Amino acid sequence: MKQQLRDSLLALRRGFIELILFVPIAWVFQAFMLPPGTEWLWIALLPIGYPAGFMINRLFSFRHSFMILLISAVIAFCYSLLLFGATKEGALSLIAASLTLYRGGKMAVTPWHNRLLPRHYTAGLLVYFGVSVVCSLAEPFKPFKPLMIGLGLVALFLTLFAANRDNVNNESLSNDDKPMIEPTVRKHNLYLVSTVAVITLLIVFSYQLQAALGALWHTFSSILNKWLSSGGEKAAVPPPQTEPPAQPPGLPSGEGKSMPLWLDILLYGIAIAVLGAVLWLVLRQLRHLPEWLRQLREKLAQLFGREKGEQNQGYVDVVESIRKPGLLGGLRLSRTKEPRSRWKDLQDNESRIRYLYRQWLARRVKAGYAFKPHLTPIETGADAGTQASDSPSAETLIHQYNSVRYGKKKITDETIRRFLERAEK
Hints:
Order of helices and strands: HHHHHHHHHHHHHHHHH
Largest sheet: none
Radius of gyration: 32 Å
Shape: extended
């Protein structure tokens, strides 16, 4: 019983996180489809759907998505009809409750970190952005503005934490279903995200903080002046009366011209189309986010001089730095300024073997091979060989490189000469 209660509370907490990201969609329907003054009961009861769906699917053990959605829709229909009847509010409650029950039911059969990925957090932020752009000036949406600001900041904090945590999990190189991260690393991750969130809050509310500090200083100076001047004997002189300023001449009465309805609809349609295109492009690039964060961390480490000791060490084997081709990969590669080792600068034959292997691997990547850093050199050679043919010296080169990397084997000048002769043919 205690375990079931603990699991239900965990599903409720995860459901709250998901609702915080996507609840502006429900606010839009509440503001524009229901009459003013309608209670928010159907929105307030949505979090209950997650633990309810979780416990129901624990009971039936459905694994197919269709069966979970079907049982969720049936339960949501009975629940909405009982509370709200055959009304618009009941229809909205039916749709929203079906989704929350379905998501809660999937929690019972799918790990949580596979159900809510960093791209979903980013999609939630884009929902806040789109709703604020399109609906912020509408009169029915004004009661939701304070909630948009408060929960939007919470969604930003959750997105930063999820993206950074996903990057840490990917860097752990763990093959387990749930990556094993040290508690110290998780704590530092939380500190980093909290610092970024606090800085963001200070930037967003800079004008309000400035006004509040100004008012506080004015109050303090007034109290101090009154305290210093309390011992004086001079009576307070009333301020001279001034005449009120003259009123400007009135404007002619009459209502201003407004745009036609068809033009309003056209402009809103264009805005929605542009927003949808931007959302589509951003979602396509989210898979590159962990790699960009890793590159940013490397650039910051170089900026603060953490790699000053890596000078004049000959050729360094950094095969893992080969970047995968992508939409923006060409632009990023064209702007890189990392120094390239030249053949004449290499001091020993081992460095020359590394250099030749790297050149071979770069040719395979250029030909379309998707580089996999977790493979060994021999596995990489077998994997790359299935995509493109190569000269017979490639297999020998891979084995020589493997012996240099893992066995620290010495390479003779004769071996290097044979590789160069084969390369020239």
